[in-house]
Amino acid sequence: MIEKTKKILIVGLGLLGGSYAQSLTRQGYEVFAITRKQSTIDYALEHGMIARGTTEIDARMIGQADIAVFALYPHVFIEWMEKNGKYFKKGAIITDVTGVKCAIVDKIQSLLPEGVEFIGAHPMAGKEVYGIENSNEEMFKGANYIVTPNEKNTPHAIETCKELGRILGFANISELSPQKHDRMIGFLSQLTHCIAVALMTCNDDVNLCKYTGDSFRDLTRIARINEDMWSELFMLNKDILISEIKAFGGELEKLRRAMETDDVETMKNMMRTSTARRAMFDKK
Amino acid sequence: MIEKTKKILIVGLGLLGGSYAQSLTRQGYEVFAITRKQSTIDYALEHGMIARGTTEIDARMIGQADIAVFALYPHVFIEWMEKNGKYFKKGAIITDVTGVKCAIVDKIQSLLPEGVEFIGAHPMAGKEVYGIENSNEEMFKGANYIVTPNEKNTPHAIETCKELGRILGFANISELSPQKHDRMIGFLSQLTHCIAVALMTCNDDVNLCKYTGDSFRDLTRIARINEDMWSELFMLNKDILISEIKAFGGELEKLRRAMETDDVETMKNMMRTSTARRAMFDKK
Asked: Is the interface score ipTM higher than 0.95?
């Protein structure tokens, strides 16, 4: 239970931060925000997404937070905590939405004042658009939410973080170590973004859209990609991502060799495996 | 204009054949069908999708068709025409829904009696499910339809084939030579299916569905794949498909090398290209 009297600070009002703010405010929490642009604060206030907000570092506001959610680029999150982590009050629980964990969890935990706890989380929701104008709490419905505790975390903080996921409306809340999270995400999210990008860069025919079917559209929806955010996420998980690209490339090679050698049976076997494994994603 | 008095034969009442039948019957055409299983005919009759149908080769029925649409596996289509093409009447126009063209167009045209014309078409619509029970004319809305004439085709047949696409409700009707069609489809459809299969076969973690976001779901929707149909389509277009796999693999390698060498600028440039090209698919 996160009581309605708890005060929640969101740092970074983008697509995800904005959606968190919208959902939590609607459900009766006092939500305040720190973000870069005044126009974002104005938008959030006009749309009733936050109670108050600032573009400055407001030590008092930070000190009021019972729970803080960081929705920033990884390096910005770390810099922010280096400068301002000291303002959090004892008992505050800090969480995030960052897409990589090993590269930030230990670092962030090393920057905390006594009695403040950081517990990582990764909401598996997003869109190929950005900014508070596109935020929408609906995107959490049916989605997965992964909490990534390490040995420094208390059961209380882990439970609070999971409860936050439930309050936001995520369908499945699960727990993974930062290491397992990064491996999973290297495959499920980062590799798929690499594939979408490579699909777009390998063909410069401007007429493709006149001939395409849904499958190409689906595979490349995420090819509209924020290059600053994703290149940072890729680099912070590069050892895992490189190995995932190699594993995937190996399977694609296997399929290609089967074609080259007229080995239809290998091709069909791969398709049968593919069909069987994909069916698991429909059950949920 | 295809007058409402025209009689239309559908050969093969699967997902696509069934959807064609449904749409054309609803719009007042007399549609009859030849298909393998009696249960399929029964289903189509019960659901008012056809006026009559048979599992036998009915020379009289074939001879009545003004327009015939073949929705069969490529090798079945060719075998069917070898045996029964002779029953078509002079003036009949034959078209199809086959996913490859070079491998069938010349062959089919060589099997036609005098005065009968074959003009290829590829409706870029489908689903990851099969069979008449899943057929639904709604799937044509907003979709692309490609007519693939060669030098043997008359303007009348080309226009009739395009008109059929319009009647069925396709949003964009375009024309490509069989060669250009096969190259386009090797990239847009076959490569994407190879990618989806390779994504499923390269990771056997049964817990993936608990952690996934939408991007992985989108990329693998088509990983539920009919291995008989797709392996046949792949093999019939294998030279092109192999070269597309190589081109795509090369771009993925480029992305991987950029990570290995910390070349963030190359990575960002690829993402910028990707974003710009993908935007063309949103305009329509």
From this structure: no
